[in-house]
Amino acid sequence: MTNQIGQLSTIPPKQRSEEAIKAFMKNKKDIPIEAFKGGFILTKVANPWSTGDLRLINTNVEDNPAVTFNYFSHPSDLQRCVEGIQLVTKVVQSQHFTNLTMCVRETTEQLLNSTVKANVNLIPKHVNDTKSLEQFCKDTVITIWHYHGGCHVGKVVDSDHKVLGVNRLRVIDGSTFTESPGTNPQATVMMMGRYMGLKILRNRLGKFGGV
Question: Annotated active-site positions, please?
């Protein structure tokens, strides 16, 4: 997935038709040039209470699994998103921020409308997106690339990252995270891989292995 297309992960794979992708790309091209001279301030709902599911649809490794995200299925997650949007809006509308950016102070509706027009995902938008923060959160939700949680410890792998019920197979990557680090997880994943690699070698070679 490229930045030009954006994220299609919030829409089930079977709904990602060629027409939908073309329409999404067209909307991206219609974004005002001013949008590329700034950026987005996001609110992150960390450690969400909402849960989804990931299932294999068959044994063909080339086929994508069935994924249901269930964003905001728990009301507390939606409330946290609303509070985050309120805080971001307050910051962007502050005198300090407008002085720094040398931009005219926009209303809350104008700020929200800019995000809705940016078309960050393929979720159908609603006419009350800028009136209801709850609806705004639901319609503009995205997962920022750092996917994790598909192989939870205790559910898919054990504490040594061995896949339950399968011999000679481990999973040591971000899919075992219950929560992704607040920054780019690359260093955390590399550290975990090195730690588990050394642990495996020490278990196999013993204390005289020099590892």
Answer: 146
